[in-house]
Specification:
Chain lengths: 513, 765
């Protein structure tokens, strides 16, 4: 029979599908009593996950709603322990640098990412705080906890001074202005006797590291752990500012300032607040810097340091805490651990930056989303190239159809339509026109039965506007409670004429399919 | 200007002079409506007939009445009578229930709840937006909740519970699948873990909601509408209760094995309590010490198979404790409970079909009712098939069941009223529809606007007048031919039995008297046995077995069983009606095929084209030839308002094996039906090709005649389209002539014409 022949030549090319599950599945029998413990003072539970039923084998497995907290915990523990386990002075120094830079970068990201202010004065804030804290310590003998406090205050003040212009001037000009501030600071400390122009820095401040441990491994470990704690504190600040009310307000402002204003959001004030918070954080880091290094050096104000920090953020991905931390890690490891390669390592850093800029849309941590998007795009391209509209699903599509009955229906329906198309002739259409209701020839009955049995989505039906004299064609939606919609404005003056018009539309759709 | 919408209903179908009748009206876009009492004569606007005809009659309701929008509470739920607010529950407690949810994925639903949606107060055990079992509490400002691990599966039995201690805030959910080979959709072989046990310490303590405890819903409020019930649950609730302590896992495990009254019980609803052999009411009995009984609203379906149904006892009368399922539907609606807009004590009106005509702007609405005589005075009774009107009331087939076009063989033709109805799910559906959870609609009531019980209405799917407006063609004919007739309704017949028919020489059925209660059938049979006469004008009549509660004739029940032309099929074990304990389904399968009473029974249906009858040889016998007096033609009824012929839409056939009286004559039979008229499903044991009109000789309408005891007789044209052929050419046609011949003879007491021609035939030719 004709139907069989058609099916053979339209069989799509098929390939095996299916993915092996490599990762073990977390299972928990429903029988077992489960207690969900909550994070104190919140309604959140520690374990943010839920059970899903795997549609392929009906196994109940647990899925984490968000895997990031677990990566954070694992990553941070590793970052804390590995340098201590390695234990060399080089590793510990590099790790401390990493922690401090990461802390600085997190604050910087608040400025650039959250507040949207293009400030390059980040290190200048740190430097100013470090210098003043060191100077006060040397001159007035203040102890290291006071230095931390002083650094924070200096940062806050400094931030207020350079933050104000940001409310008036935009983008590039502000960046240039802050660059000027950085250079001003550098030249100032290089020439100022008070700030150690003669000694290449200001040294002799109080430190939290006991004298006996200084420049020894225990001292370095203590320094690292302290720097790590600073980084954790900055992570906390980043999360509180970016993830909470202020961050959400500014996220709206970034989408559209006009919308934000219309919603009554004072985004300029929010930006300034974020700038102050991050400056205070940077000031604290500066204070810490002074107590760790027992002073401050003019390199804090050098432009190449700013550029190195910038490279870290770009590589990690702007606007993500994990980007700032990991980007810092990558650059610091290259910079500090491979000093024997000399200046070539800066070229490597530059190449990584170039690669990330050219190929990744949002740093290392944007790669996954980008990859998934790319795969989906390829998938739909491939599928559309291999399937026929309304035809049999491919194996990979079939796996996504819940009710397998629909797969057979599509196969059957396609063949039936192909056959019915051969039955539609001018004679059949004329037969219907002459007598839309009642017994018809076999071909016409078959075509009509197909039309009548179709589902309710986009089905042509009639609407009687005026009894017996005015009809129009409408289309049902197939959804309960959603009324049919109009097709066109043609009015038919008799029921038979209208019935035939519906028939012609249905025939048209059949032949087009 | 906003579009004006007027609709409403009467508090009764039939009324006698001197009795009171009230009209409930809801209006949008107007504050007043002009009311006029009218007598309805014809209701079909088919241009081949006389068109719509009404006559204004002076009535006490005439004039301007103020109208307003009236709201309707849809959805079945149960309200617990708790005068001492024992269920405010300040102490530790456990809520537990045997449940069988049908639409867990549909959104938040309350199962056992004392919860105010508007004020976030109280507590509830229910289903959350992700389809999971959830216990939620609210203190009036904030809410807190604990949910189960996996969504509930539809149509599976579970024991669900929450044990809650407000001191510690600890809430423990219990969700265990109930193992049954019968009641669950999925067998135990399906490797699906449906259980969950979760404990969480809630931060919020519930505040007293100060509202009734509900099963299957929560309290809501809206400024326009006032208080109503929302978050309605779909599915069954079987045994359930409230216990005054936090029950342990072991306590609940024991309940799963056997439901018993636990210690410290506050309420223990034994849903299978209070059943009788004659049916089940709306009360849900608390067998605990506090007697906190519940009452179902919008009639939850009782006597449904329970969590412990063994599959062997197939009726709630046989083993009530296995049928404790109370099936709630979020769109079941039995009584709009609107305030009366106007009322009257019926003046001395002639029996007939009347309506209150409402008008505001261009919008006109009729609220029909039937006036019976104070005392039966005519020889002729027109029996209005109100049971069948209920069965089809607000059918949504055309829009919601697109493949019904295969049955009608017609492109549906919609009207304004269909679109309007689709906007009002709260006006409920017909017994041809399903509730939103897929179960068939088994209750239909008249205390709601019925869009298709209006003059001018045409059914979308068939594009012809159906039921009420079709029956108006018979009324028109009686009026035009000047017959003196009384109007009675199915409801009167069910209430009064044979006494309702006895005063009349002849009773005329409507075009489609498909739904019959046992009492109606008994009364008709007894009436015929005592010399009564019936003109069976229906196609597919006396078909479905229906029932009413003894105390409430406003609501009819039917269950569509394993056979018959059915829009749905009742679940196994749910074949008996909760209203009176009777088995439903088609009468043929209960041993009472319509052939036994009126000679013919359902054989086929189709809506594309109706056909004429051709006289059969038996019609030339002198005992029946008088029926065709004045008719020259061989073909009878090659015209009509229902698809162009007198035989069609739904048609019935003579069958000796189904109890057609042996002396029945086939006077005429229709011919030439299309293949869109297939044999009905109850005729088909094995299905095979060739069941359609062009291939099978069973596809025909038989016009039959037979006599009964005491000068009684039945004449059956056996076709829906017959009545709608009567008005053709203003009633001057051969269908009308045959009808008049029969009616004239039947209306006269004494022996029937032709009765003397009973001798043996002595043939010369």
């Amino acid at each position: 029979m004709a139907i069989d022949k058609q099916s053979q030549h339209s069989a799509p090319s098929r390939s095996l599908v299916g993915d092996r599950g490599w990762l073990p599945r977390i299972r928990l029998a429903g029988q077992r009593s489960l207690t969900r413990y909550r994070i104190p003072f919140t309604r959140r539970t520690w374990f943010q996950g839920h059970a899903v039923v795997n549609p392929r084998d009906l196994t109940r497995q647990y899925k984490l709603d968000d895997k990031r907290p677990w990566f954070w915990i694992g990553g941070l523990i590793a970052a804390l322990i590995i340098p201590i386990l390695v234990g060399t002075n080089l590793a510990l120094t590099a790790a401390t640098t990493f922690a401090l830079y990461a802390a600085i970068n997190l604050m910087w990201m608040l400025v650039i990412g959250t507040a949207g202010i293009f400030s390059l004065a980040t290190l200048a804030v740190v430097g100013a705080s470090a210098y003043l804290a060191a100077w006060f310590s040397i001159e007035f003998g203040i102890t290291w906890p006071v230095m931390l406090l002083l650094g924070t205050l200096v940062g806050l003040l400094f931030g207020a001074i350079i933050g104000l212009p940001a409310l008036r001037i935009d983008g590039l000009y502000f960046a240039l202005l802050t660059m000027g501030v950085v250079e001003l600071c550098r030249v100032y400390v290089l020439q100022s006797r008070t700030f150690g122009s003669a000694t290449g820095g200001l040294y002799g401040a109080d430190t939290f590291i006991p004298v006996a441990w200084q420049l020894k491994t225990p001292g370095l470990i203590l320094g690292y752990v302290a720097a790590f704690a600073v980084m954790l504190a900055m992570l906390g600040i980043y999360r509180l500012v970016n993830g909470q009310r202020l961050g959400l307000l500014l996220a709206t402002a970034r989408e559209s300032e006009a919308t934000a204003e219309a919603l009554g959001i004072n985004y300029q004030r929010a930006r300034f607040t974020v700038f102050l918070i991050s400056s205070a954080g940077l000031g604290f880091i500066g204070g810490f810097y002074a107590t760790y290094f027992k002073g401050a050096s003019p390199s804090l104000f050098s432009i190449d340091q700013v550029m190195l920090l910038f490279a870290m953020i770009v590589i990690g991905g702007l606007g993500r805490a994990e980007g700032a931390v990991v980007g810092t890690g990558v650059v610091v490891v290259l910079d500090k651990m491979f000093t024997e390669f000399g200046p070539i390592r800066f070229i490597v850093i530059g190449l990584i930056m170039l690669g990330v800029t050219l190929f990744a849309r949002n740093g290392l941590f944007g790669i996954r989303d980008q990859f998934v998007e790319f795969r989906n795009k390829k998938k739909s391209e491939r599928r559309s190239g291999r399937t026929e509209k309304g035809g049999e699903p491919l194996p990979e599509e079939a796996t996504e159809i819940r009710d397998k009955d629909q797969i057979y229906f599509r196969r059957f329906d396609k063949r039936l339509r192909d056959h019915l198309k051969t039955l539609v002739t001018p004679e059949v259409i004329e037969e219907h026109r002459l007598k839309p209701l009642g017994q018809h020839s076999d071909p016409l009955e078959r075509v009509l039965n197909y039309f009548r049995g179709a589902g309710g989505e986009n089905k042509y039906v009639l609407y009687e506007l005026k009894a017996n004299t005015e009809y129009k064609i409408i289309v049902t939606t197939g959804e309960k409670g959603i009324p049919p919609r109009d097709v066109d404005s043609t009015i038919y003056t008799s029921k038979n004429e209208a019935l035939h018009a519906v028939f012609l539309k249905r025939v048209q759709d059949l032949m087009d399919s | 200007m906003a579009k004006i919408v007027l609709t409403g209903y009467c508090d009764r179908f039939s009324v006698k002079p001197g009795e009171d009748i009230s009209f409930m009206v809801s209006a949008e876009g107007t504050k007043t409506a002009e009311v006029q009492l009218v007598r309805l004569i014809h209701g079909d606007e088919n241009p081949e007939g006389p068109g719509f005809i009404e006559k204004e009659v002076d009535g006490p309701i005439d004039g301007s009445h103020s109208v307003r929008k009236q709201h309707t509470q849809a959805g079945s739920f149960a309200r617990i009578d708790d005068p001492d607010t024992r269920l405010a529950l300040g102490q530790a407690f456990t809520l537990w229930a045997m449940i069988w949810p049908t639409t867990p994925e549909k959104g938040r639903q309350g199962i056992l709840a004392r919860w105010s949606i508007t004020h976030d107060r109280g507590y509830a055990l229910g289903i959350n937006g992700d389809g999971q079992l959830e216990f939620w509490v609210g203190d009036g400002k904030k809410t807190d909740a604990v949910h189960a691990e996996v969504p509930l599966r539809p149509r599976q039995w579970y024991l669900v519970a929450v044990s809650y201690d407000p001191k510690s805030g600890q809430a423990t959910l219990y969700q265990e699948r109930v193992e049954t080979r019968y009641g669950n959709l999925l067998s135990k072989i399906t490797p699906l873990d449906m259980n969950s046990h979760v404990t969480e310490a809630l931060r919020i303590r519930p505040a007293d909601a100060e509202l009734d405890f509900l099963m299957a819903g929560c309290h809501d409020h809206n400024a326009d509408r006032g208080d109503f019930i929302g978050q309605l649950y779909n599915g069954k609730i079987d045994r359930c209760g409230v216990v005054g302590r936090a029950m342990s896992r072991a306590d609940l495990d024991a309940m799963l094995q056997e439901v018993t009254q636990p210690a410290d019980v506050i309420a223990h609803w034994d849903t299978s309590e209070g059943y009788s052999d004659k049916g089940i009411g709306d009360d849900i009995v608390d067998t605990g010490p506090n007697k906190l009984h519940g009452r179902g609203h919008n009639r939850p379906v009782r006597g449904a198979t329970g969590y412990n149904w063994n599959g062997r006892d197939d009726c709630f009368r046989l083993a009530p404790h296995q049928f404790g399922g109370v099936w709630f539907h979020d769109d079941s609606m039995l009584d709009c409970q609107w305030k009366a807009t106007f009322s009257m004590t019926l003046p001395d009106l002639k029996s007939g079909v009347y309506a209150a005509r409402l008008q505001a702007g261009d919008t006109i609405e009729h609220l029909p009712f039937f006036v019976r005589p104070k005392k039966p005075g005519s020889a002729i009774a027109m029996l209005i098939p109100t049971c069948s009107y209920l069965a089809y009331a607000n059918d949504r087939l055309g829009l919601e069941f697109p493949t019904s076009q295969l049955v009608s063989a017609h492109v549906p033709v919609f009207h304004e009223w269909d679109i309007e109805l689709s906007k009002h799910p709260e006006y409920a559906s017909s017994t041809y529809d399903t509730y939103s959870d897929g179960a068939g609609v088994c209750y239909s009531s008249r205390l709601r606007p019925i869009f298709n019980m209006r003059p001018k209405h045409r059914m979308a799917g068939t594009a012809v007048a159906w039921q009420f407006p079709a029956d108006m063609s018979i009324i028109y004919w009686l009026e035009t031919k000047g017959y003196d007739y009384d109007v009675i309704t199915d409801e009167d017949l069910h209430r009064e039995g044979k006494d309702c028919l006895s005063p009349y020489q002849v009773v005329i059925n409507g075009t489609h008297a498909e739904y019959y209660s046992e009492r109606m059938l008994d009364a008709t049979e007894d009436y015929l046995a005592e010399g009564g006469r019936v003109m069976y004008l229906s196609g597919n009549g006396y078909y479905w077995a229906v029932s009413f509660r003894e105390d409430d004739l406003s609501c009819m029940e039917v269950r569509k069983l394993d056979s018959g032309s059915r829009a749905w099929q009742a679940l196994p074990g749910e074949h008996y009606m909760a209203s009176n304990g009777e088995r439903s389904g088609i009468w043929r399968n209960r041993g009472r095929p319509p052939q036994k009473i009126v000679g013919t029974g359902f054989t086929s249906e189709g809506m594309d084209e109706s056909k004429p009858y051709r006289r059969m040889p038996d019609s030339y016998h002198k005992s029946v030839a008088w029926i065709f007096e004045g008719v020259e033609e061989e073909l009878i009824g090659d015209f009509g308002l229902a698809a162009g012929g007198a035989a069609g839409i739904e048609i019935d056939r003579y069958d000796l094996t189904l109890g057609t009286p042996p002396h029945t004559r086939i006077l005429a039979s229709s011919e030439g039906h299309s293949d869109s008229y297939p044999r009905v499903s109850e005729e088909i044991a094995f299905n095979f090709p060739g069941q359609g009109g062009t291939q099978h000789y069973h596809i025909r309408a038989d016009m039959t005649y037979f006599t009964t005891l005491n000068n009684g007789a039945v004449w059956s044209p056996s076709s829906i389209a017959w009545g709608q052929a009567l008005p053709w050419n203003n009633g001057d046609n051969n269908v009308s002539r045959v009808m008049a011949n029969v009616l004239d003879a039947f209306a006269k007491p004494g022996p029937l014409p032709g009765a003397e021609y009973h001798a043996e035939e002595k043939h010369w030719k």
